[in-house]
Design goal:
The structure holds 2 protein chains of 2 kinds. Chain A has 16 helices and 20 strands. By secondary structure, chain A is of the alpha/beta class. Chain A has 2 domains: 260 residues, Aldehyde Dehydrogenase, Chain A, domain 1; 183 residues, Aldehyde Dehydrogenase, Chain A, domain 2, CATH 3.40.309. Chain A has a 7-stranded mixed sheet with strand order 14-15-16-13-12-17-18, sandwiched between helices. Chain A has a 6-stranded mixed sheet with strand order 9-8-7-10-11-19, sandwiched between helices. Chain A has a 3-stranded mixed sheet with strand order 1-5-4, covered by helices on one side. Chain B is an alpha/beta fold. Chain B has a single domain, classed as Alpha-Beta Barrel (TIM Barrel), CATH 3.20.20.70. Chain B has 13 helices and 8 strands. Classes of the chains: A alpha/beta, B alpha/beta. At the A-B interface, helix 1 and helix 10 of A face helix 1, helix 2, helix 3, helix 11 and helix 12 of B.
Chain lengths: 505, 313
Amino acid sequence: MATLTTDKKPARSASRANGRPRPELIFGDLWEFDPAPETADPKLKPRYDLFIGGKFVAPASGKYFDSINPANEQKLAELAVGGAADVDAAYQAASKAFESVWGKMPGKERGKYLFRIARLLQDRAREFAVAETMDNGKPIRETRDFDVPMAAAHFFYHGGWADKLDYAAPGRRMAPLGVVAQVIPWNFPLLMLSWKIAPALAAGNCVVIKPATNTPINAVKLAEIFQDAGLPPGVVNVITGPGSTGGLMMAHPSAAKIAFTGSTEVGKVIMRSVAGTEKKMTMELGGKAANIVFDDAPIDQAVEGIVNGIFFNQGQVCCAGSRLLVHESVADLVVSKLKNRLRVLRVGDPLDKNTDVGAIVSRAQLDSIQEYLDIGVKEGAEMWQPPFRRPAKGFFLPPTIFTGVTMSHRIAREEIFGPVLSILTFRTVEEAIEKANNTAYGLSAGVWTDKGSRILKMSTELKAGVVWANTFNKFDPTSPFGGYKESGFGREGGRQGLLDYAKLV
Amino acid sequence: MLANSPSAALARLFDEVGTVDCVGVEERVAKYTTRSIKKASKVKGLKLAVSMVDLTTLEGKDTPGKVASLCRKALRPHEDPGVPSVAAVCVYPAMVRHARKALGSDTAVRIASVATAFPSGQAPLKTRLAEVKAAVADGADEIDMVINRGAYLAGELAEVQDEIAAVSAARGDATLKVILEVSELETYDNIRAASFLAMRVIREGDFIKTSTGKTSLNATLGNNQVMLEAIRDFYLDTGVAIGMKPAGGIRTAKQSLQFLIAVKETLGDAWLTNERYRFGASALLNDLLRQIETQKTGAYQAPYYFSDAAESY
């Protein structure tokens, strides 16, 4: 696509040279928005225990750790440090529930519990959204409009499967695995919880789950909903604690399956630890997705997709579009439009309804991202950030883009897990595919073009679990999600995700 | 031969100015509706919206008396002196001289007149140009013209553009607003392309406008966004700042704030003025006043204080 030239252009350029300033847009404070904080009560308790066998119980160690709000560094609540004895107790409770109740219950009855959980979560949606925002730092706009509704949708969807398992694998019958161990990350605490628990329960399994150390609150709050829903004791057990507790859970002999979402590094450690056992595994690990913009793409909407791709949830998304591959002929246009768009993204208090980009989850994560910014600059890429006033407290980073990035730069190869976009250019379709696939990861990719046949070609050639066309970061419970290569294996969501929680007999 | 075909002309124009993805635009504008405008920023936004209203009456039953009362409302929308007067009144050409009589010559409120065989535009060009000249002679400060949608859809783009240029020449010193009638162009691609056709032949400070208000679909956040982005791209390319006027369908204060947020986040502060942004509306003004009063007193007023009917000015 040509840029917006008309034949009058030379005359105007001349007048510009004569002292007329280059046209610019002013995004100032002529009409500034007043603070609009979400005021719903998150109903936090000062201290949360472990949820084992349908009851909240104190940890054997008697120790607790703090969960803080990354937006103001204040303590939110204390959570139990689960240890080996607690993990044992959880597996005993889960095994008992599986043998005596849940594994034998007709699917139709199990489905009722899932629907009930979904409805209770909807009833308390605003409360969970605020708790999620305070614990994680992501903007209330996202928790309210995405995380919580999507979490409920996963319970609804899998509730629907529970009585239809006989039709999920034609010619075969599905049988539950037993007790499954699930360890989830901090980037979507409630959603990950839901999309792991719901299919496991629908298929008739019982669960021992550990939320991330940084973001445990909604896991124990969801346990309150399990109690309210009358879920039989032991069907789901929630163990909070450090990463080592997760290690104990995965290595436990009673675990029939391990479902892990997190970094590739930790995923490799876990796989080594269970090598040689009969445990089934699914791993959803890191990513370095290519978002590919062709010259015939609708540029403004592509820019919006780039923003949704990498600045959604502060870029702390495993499938984030962290590598922008843009057709060389439109690269300048895309970058200038992107910069104008980033100047109106609002970074700040996550509880403010007008905030687009909230806080980074922890100081350690912020430091790690900052380190990558330094590396990017040192390796010769050009860094750009919009004007940004850093709040006095909290872990904030403005949206950041790097231009002049090459495939050998570390910021183009390694997962940064933050609001940092590396921009590369390409000339032909083949070059785009080659660059997109030249990575250890393969979780997601995006294609922006007006040409339908090109979308189909790209979706076949890109080695990624999800390929989005003319959109990015769209999720649905019916759509399987998972990776290629070092992004992991196994799928979550859809029929495929359900089958990963069952034996076919 | 192929290069001269009407379809080639449209294809070239799309290729030149770029296309629009419908799903993406609607996703973008949905974000404007989740912005939360409170307290002082709300009052400021509401008053800004009042100052941008083109208070409109375009009815077969318009009379000099109705136009006179509309003009008084335009000058002094509310007893509160903190509420500004509106930007303009918008009337049919036959009513321009009555509006001028009601407003006088020394007034902040401008007189806009729809001309060019509004709303269809289906009259000979000569007739349309004569109508424009007559309205200006009667005292119109602004002319709201309609483009030739029939010619556009037939691919006769040169004809569309030449007619806009002809009207532009005929309007003298008056400000020109070019109505695209988005519901008849139908696609966002067409709306963007037609915006460029118009902007290339009008003057700095002129406007492009969504619609006549006489068809089923009028201003929406979606077509407003497409036109704002066209204005932005044209400005960054040429330095010529064109204004924008969504018209029809904006009935509530809340809607008008959402449109203003779109302006703030797409074109920036320089367009948050009635010299570059207008609302073509009639019922909107009373809802703005109702909300301003609500902010001031902390309570909603009884419905009979502010009529919903555009008739009661």
